[in-house]
Amino acid sequence: MEIFVSAILGELASRSINFFISKSSKPKVLDMEQGLQRALLRAQLIINEATGRHITNPAMLQQVDMLRDAMHHGCYVLDTFRYQSHSEENGKDQVVSHSLSLSSKVIFLKGIYSSNRNTLLLQQLEDALDNLSSMILDMKELVVFLMNYPHMYQEPYNMHLLLGNCMFSRQIETELVVNFLLDTQHRYHGSEELEVLPIVGPAKVGKSTLVAHVCKNERVQDHFSKILFLRDHDFTDGDLAKLREGCAMKHQNCISNSNKHKGWLVIVDLVGDLNEDAWNVLYSSCKQLMPSTSKIIIANRSAKITEFGTTRALHMKYLSLEASWYFFKTIAFGSMDPKMHPRFAQVAMEIAKLLDRGLIGVNIIACLLRDNFDIGFWCKVLDFWRRLVQKYVSKFGVHPTVLMYQNKPVHLGRMTNPFEDLVLYREYQRFSHEEVPKIRVDDVVYGSVEALGKSEFLAWDSRIPPYYSYVFTCEVRELKRRAAKRKRSTENGITLC
């Protein structure tokens, strides 16, 4: 009887704390939530207008980029606040109590924790609203100046279609590269040296995508007579004489029907390292064959290429968690409003936190969820990724995608079949005109496709330049039944979501 009373008193204490906190702060919370929502809409209008124009002023670009970051952060804070109640309800279901006495203590402590968390979220809401509101006030002059810049496109898009078919959140980097290519004022008079811009960044950060978008820019295409692409296969032979001959042959094949008075743009887009000897051969060949107004862009993961640059390198980084969530949510929900599906939104936030912030992986999972709009399926995906990330972080100290990018074997497993394991060996890119496998990786991981043995599976078909298809060499292995049964029984003993 005493244990029962203790449990009831613990529950009453917890509810009393939450009642008085919510009673005193509810109007303020509601005002801030609505205020932040209005501020986010105003920020979105300004950013949409800026994104659709050819802005060349670096200070304006930086100001728009800062507003975009503040909008992503505000959106993340607002979503966290909206969907926390569903997370807490889910957490209650997962508490395992060995006695009513222990349960009462857990309930009381959870009440304290919940009230502290609410206070913290309230402060974050207030900070996000203040930051965003002050930035919008500072943008008054910028909005006026925006009208002086020409439009890039006039087509109306739904946001999920726009983000799914354009480069996300790279406007400032794009204009920095375009300004470098079009700049003619910083050349020394009579100099024969070619200008070189290094672009450095980790795997799948978007280096090739950025360069491809720049090359499709009308101003860039009008400025150069030809654009020459060099990739890893142009450097694999190791014979520097053949490299020189190859550069000359590419030059001869492209020079026809071109304006010989304009410079060339040479794009060196590499995954592997570029040694100094190969670079010297390439650079000297370009100097001999091309006008002095030609320019070179070299993109690579290694910071060593900064030594080859004649200007400050552009360093690309992964998106912030807030920006990644904004993109993920928009793609996953499509034309649906996440506010109408709070349980789905809460699960989606948990999944987004587990993914790396490369947009290819985010795209794959977001499209998978959109095509399978079922809360049970979403919860299974969440549980699958929790286990996968936990396994690799505890065993190797890194996220599994880090090993994928290094082309090291990664055991993904299969969500729907505990008796089989999917091993990813190597990822490579194919051009849009090349044939790709018909079976997709997510059909094997999350579906019921039968595909024992080694094979190639399609991971992602990019809808934006350079329109690569990402293909994995994989193997589906049959696991020993005893180990698989133990794995399945462990999964069945834990609430998925």
From TrEMBL:
Residues 191-333 form the NB-ARC domain. Gene3D superfamilies: P-loop containing nucleotide triphosphate hydrolases (3.40.50.300). It comes from the Eukaryota. PANTHER family: NB-ARC DOMAIN-CONTAINING PROTEIN, OS10G0134700 PROTEIN-RELATED. This is NB-ARC domain-containing protein. It comes from Urochloa decumbens. The lineage of its organism: Eukaryota, Viridiplantae, Streptophyta, Embryophyta, Tracheophyta.
